[in-house]
Model the fold of this input.
Amino acid sequence: MTTGKDLSFLRLVAQRLVGPGLPTATEVVRHLTCMQAQDLPGALASVMLRTTATEDAATTATAAADGGAITSTAAVADGGAAAVAAADGVTATTTATAADTTTPIASDADAADGGIVGALAVGEVVRSWPMRGTLHLVPAEDLGWMLSLTSERLIAGAARRRQQLGIDEPMLHRAAEVVQEALRGGGSLSRTELMALWERAGLLEAGQRGYHLLWNLSQRGLTCFGPLVGGEQRIVLLDEWVPRPRALERDEALGEWALRYFRGHGPATRKDFMWWTKLTGKEVTAALAVARPQLEVIDVDGADHFLDPATPQLLEENRRAARGVLLLPGFDELILGYQDRSATLPAEHADRIVPGGNGMFRPTVVAGGRVVGTWRRTGSGTRRRIEAEPFTTFTQAVERAVARRAGTFPAPVGPS
Done:
């Protein structure tokens, strides 16, 4: 029977945090299907950590950070492009002091190098609310069929909030007209610019109404977040930005969502998938009926866990790296991809990454497949650093590995 530790290691390789990364950012997002992204800079970093091209560039461009004395708090320079695939406990020799970079503006050249900014620029990846009422990065061609499975229920569930804000169908129709007039023909708007248009149209008399108008129109498939310009993601018309969406029949869409979830996140349970998507029990049953023949099933503590049949071998080839140290952004799928996070996050420390249960997940330090602490950025410019705090204490080997990882962690991209 598979143990909890093996479960965590298997998830690390399935998610491509350990072992071979994927060649491009688009392939990373497609592999995980949806990546939680209300914290945009963190979501972009999560993609970069799984992208081979970014990792290779970091390995050649950034020296390993100093493994010197760091006690209960590890503080090291924050600079490079992605994580170095180094095993826990290896002694480093130089100090990374790379300054924080300015936010890049997307261009065709960015798309050519396989990065996430370029993938957003050319419409391969978009950001919207496909499930759980939360922003996610998704493959652009898949957003339509995801919304077809979830939006009706999500819109119905928000009816009371719309009533509280005085949002009715005529108002939504007028908001859509304003958006279409402004964007039709390939236009884009920042969120601030869109809110100003709605303000002039007399639609924003109540606080938070703007957010809910945008959320509702995006649920209906009118808008999504597209390219990054000047560090801010622009709002575009979905049908123009994604002119060739994939069209799937309902059962086919359910089955594909399950298959891709378990390939990218497994081993995971039926309950994990149901929580992650917020599909109904009947829909999850239909999804598994389609996907199960292509998945392996293992028993973990008496519960069936589904996964890609290739994942166990991938772990055997990368077990040493799986035991190493990672720095992850706050809303990374290793934590947010499951209802039951106990294999990776000790229950007694769960409140340390979500203080007060406020829904804001702190960045984490992972060692040996388990979350062992949190980290944060401090300072600015050339003094910008990552400061890590253990749940109990870090071993010297973990301290050295934290230093290396911090020296090559993706520099902030997008609004902070």
